[in-house]
């Protein structure tokens, strides 16, 4: 398990202590879990890099098709996140979900890319939604998606699209959140074990707010 | 008519490609731009394409007597789990050169290069209900669905995009 390799916690603020045993909290009943906070990161928030690296490795090793093959090295995962942080700005955003109490454990992340084309200023793409495997079922994905959709709508981006592995648990999540399935493409990407998988293409129309 | 695979050193073709670009936009295909697209934006677009050219991004030009008649691009997926797929982009045929089989020749060139690079899946998207749809279907492409209100026409009207794929045997 990746959790044995390195701590999954980072301090949200410098004043917060890092608990080396914080991953034990994942086993706590939902009622005892800390509230979830959604935070938009900037290119200066590099303190989250180790936790994001663990999140990506966790998801890839759990079989998520995030563009990578398993096993994913820490170097490759870190390199990927450095690239994301370098892109953050007007057209690319990154949100994380973390616990708002205690050490502020990272629970999940999602990205929004705004289409720069002159004929598509109403469009954005949701990319690489990830939730730690042991944190599923507590609404992390819904909260992340909700924040992304609100932000997109307030920026006049009222058409969102995304791709996800066909027949995956994620499909049920997106359908539940009101996304429409446009179609699917066979053998589109390699799964964690290298087998080819179909991709499903989704879109969602948001209210015109701008 | 000659069909050339262009490289980053072939930027002398940009004025001719620009003429083809404006003819395509005038013909109602947005290519990502609106009708007010100007010369500097056009040049910036092609310069960016030439900057990308290499083994992972290919550009073909069909030309005669220095005039650009048609073009297409092939972009290989850079993701570790998508090395077997590529996207066909920006197929354009000058309105004066249509109905001559040029689009099919451009697509054949792109597919042959894709096969040679080990590509097994091609994808593209195109404006739904446009004449291009019938063309792609005649070339063996499969339509999986569409996204409504996806992109604006040069006149600003939002149109659906149709999603296509083709497996290379």
> pLDDT under 50 segments of chain B (min length 5)?
none
What is the highest CATH level, the class of the domain at 35-162 in chain A?
Alpha Beta
The largest pleated sheet of chain B is described as:
7 strands, mixed
Q: How helix-rich are the residues of chain A, as a percent range?
A: 10-25%
Features:
heterodimer, A: alpha+beta, 4 helices, disordered N terminus, B: 169 residues, alpha+beta, 7-stranded mixed β-sheet
List the helices and strands and how they pair.
The complex is a heterodimer of chains A (210) and B (169).
Chain A: E1 36-41, H1 49-61, H2 74-87, E2 92-99, E3 106-114, E4 123-131, H3 140-154, E5 159-165, H4 169-176, E6 180-190, E7 196-205
Parallel strand pairs in A: 4-5
Antiparallel strand pairs in A: 1-2, 2-3, 3-4, 5-7, 6-7
Helix pairs in contact in A: 1-2
Chain B: E1 2-6, H1 14-26, H2 39-52, E2 57-64, E3 67-76, E4 85-93, H3 102-116, E5 121-127, H4 131-138, E6 142-152, E7 158-167
Parallel strand pairs in B: 4-5
Antiparallel strand pairs in B: 1-2, 2-3, 3-4, 5-7, 6-7
General description of the model:
The complex is a heterodimer of chains A (210) and B (169). Chain A has four helices and seven strands, in the order βααβββαβαββ. Chain A is of the alpha+beta class and 210 residues long. Chain A has a domain of 128 residues: Gcn5-related N-acetyltransferase (GNAT) (Aminopeptidase, 3-Layer(aba) Sandwich). Chain A has a seven-stranded mixed beta sheet with strand order 1-2-3-4-5-7-6, sandwiched between helices. In chain A, β3 and β4 form a beta hairpin. In chain A, α1 packs across α2. Chain A is globular and about 40 Å long. Chain B is an alpha+beta fold and 169 residues long. Chain B has one domain: Aminopeptidase, CATH 3.40.630.30. Chain B has four helices and seven strands. Chain B is globular, with a radius of gyration of 15 Å. Chains A and B meet through β6 and β7 of A and β6 and β7 of B.
